[in-house]
Amino acid sequence: MKKNRIRRLTELSLVCAASLTVFVVEMYIPMPIPVPGVKLGLANVFTCFAAYRYRAGETSAVVTARVLLGALFAPDPTSLLYSAVGASLALAVMLPLSRGCKKVPLTSILGAAAHNTGQIAAAFLITRTPQIFYYLPILLLSVCVTGAFTGILAGILIKKLPGIRDE
Amino acid sequence: MKKKINVTTVAYAVAALVSAIGIIGTILFLFNGKKEFVEIVSDGEVIYRIDISDRANDGDYVVEFEGRQNVVTVSGGSVRVTYAQCPDQICVKTGELRSMIPIVCLPNKLIVRFADPPAGSDPPDVIQ
């Protein structure tokens, strides 16, 4: 019994570490579109994987840890707020979807869409200018592309990595 | 007969809606919205309101937030952020302000947007 909990904890830590690494590295990849919030969203690969593989509480723990640790690496401390809001919304969408929807890229796209929408909403609260919502359509378009891509990657992970059976 | 709502179908519908908003919104917003006046907003406050069609207002407008500077340059009817002390430089890379989509520097809480001329205006610049 205890051995399984340790195995599960180790697994979750690995997923979190992978997510965090990818999150930090991605910060240094320049995107051709100069829009705040447009990025590959590679960390979502692991969030999606966790949503399909683990329980809701476990997935939330992985994401929370990644958001908090990721803030340590970000040059701008307020980005923690954007990250937190975006990730919360993304989880709220992806956790139920992972139970009901078999198509991983679809879950990934909707999760990423929720993530970016949350970030724009947070940016609006901080800058208090409604014009920032004009960025939303462009973000949603980019999300359809990047979300599908990360979803396909997550799907490959889900298929190829064997589930840990409780012994 | 009981009809069960398929989650996947709903998900597809929402994704289609997201794409539609993305495409229609981008077309609507990207090519419209140019106006004669420009507002430079720092931390929620309008710092400058400039008539960019007036050549006399050409120049560099410096805004500072928490010790970090952004320089907004007005020249020949175009507005852009030419210098910014911020980590992502998105504001500089955005280039010229060309639609209702504003130039934002999120770390420095700076927004540059088109605006209507103030009703009954006197000076072309509003300096706070």
How would you concisely characterize the structure shown here?
The complex is a heterodimer of chains A (167) and B (128). With 167 residues, chain A is mainly α. Chain A contains six helices and no strands.
Describe this structure in words.
The complex is a heterodimer of chains A (167) and B (128). With 167 residues, chain A is an all-alpha fold. Chain A contains 6 helices and no strands. In chain A, helix 2 crosses helix 5 and helix 3 packs antiparallel against helix 4. The radius of gyration of chain A is 16 Å and the shape is globular. With 128 residues, chain B is α+β, with helices and mostly antiparallel strands. Helix content of chain B is 23%, strand content 34%. Chain B contains 2 helices and 7 strands. In chain B, strand 4 and strand 5 form a beta hairpin. The radius of gyration of chain B is 20 Å and the shape is elongated. The mean pLDDT of chain B is 85. Chains A and B meet through helix 4, helix 5 and helix 6 of A and helix 1 and helix 2 of B.
List the helices and strands and how they pair.
The complex is a heterodimer of chains A (167) and B (128).
Chain A: H1 2-26, H2 43-53, H3 56-73, H4 79-100, H5 104-127, H6 136-160
Helix pairs in contact in A: 1-2, 1-3, 2-4, 2-5, 2-6, 3-4, 4-5, 5-6
Chain B: H1 7-30, E1 37-42, E2 45-51, E3 59-65, E4 68-75, E5 78-84, H2 90-94, E6 103-105, E7 110-115
Antiparallel strand pairs in B: 1-2, 1-7, 3-4, 4-5, 6-7
Strand and helix order of chain B: HEEEEEHEE
Counted by DSSP, the helix tally of chain A is 6
Number of helices of chain B: 2
The class by helix and strand makeup of chain B works out as alpha+beta
Key attributes of the depicted protein:
heterodimer; A: 167 residues; mainly alpha; 6 helices; 75% helix; 0% strand; B: 128 residues; alpha+beta; 4-stranded antiparallel β-sheet; 3-stranded antiparallel β-sheet; 2 helices; elongated
